[in-house]
Amino acid sequence: MIVFGLISSVFDLLGFALLIYVFHAPELVFQTAWFVLSLLTELAVVMVLRRQGLAWRSRPGGLLVAITAGVGLVAFVLPFTGPLARLFGLTPLALPLLGAMTLLVTGYLVLTEAAKLLFFRAAARGSRPNAPVTPEARASAPRCESAPSTAARTAPRAPGFRTGWCPRGSSSSRCRWGRGVVCR
């Protein structure tokens, strides 16, 4: 998880460099752009890290989409609202700056998605505790044939209660692949 913090920090520094060295942003423009940029990157990372697989292959919940889109829209529109923007100390941003910030957020999304995929691939190889077990490890795992208690052995089996492959060294835990088998 440290990797995601480092990616965020690198993009924060890129945002600073963009604002200071490319756009020569005065203080008020810098503060406004930083507010918009940091809010958009946080919203983006919520959408990317919400699940293990590719972010665009699953549909997020309606409430999450509505809240994320609403907050993102407010972040973009608030600097252009006149008196309300002045109340918050914001100023309108130039279109080229908004475009550059959009590209920066897109790059952040792509790199975060790639880091997430690498993280879960490493986890599948077993390079961290409690990682998802690979098919090779499952093939060499001991076979569970019965439940540990007499009551469980004599009780009628419900649908989905069957023998299956259990993680090596499991003890009285639910078998991940057996859908309800208790392993010894």
In short:
The protein is mainly α and 184 residues long. The protein has helices at residues 2-22, 27-48, 62-77, 83-87, 95-124, 135-139, 150-154, and strands at residues 143-144, 164-165, 173-174, 182-183.
Structural descriptors:
184 residues; mainly alpha; 2 domains; two-stranded antiparallel sheet; 7 helices; disordered C terminus
Tell me how many strands there are: 4
* Strand numbers in spatial order across the main sheet: 1-2
- pLDDT < 50 stretches: 145-166, 170-184
Order of helices and strands: HHHHHHEHEEE
Q: Regarding quaternary structure, how should these chains be classified?
A: single chain
Rg, nearest Å: 25 Å
Shape: elongated
How many H/I helical runs?
7
Helical residue percent band: 55-70%
Let me know the average pLDDT. Answer: 77
Most strands sheet: 2 strands, antiparallel
Tell me the domain tally: 2
- Per DSSP, what share of the residues sits in E-state strands of 2 or more residues? under 5%
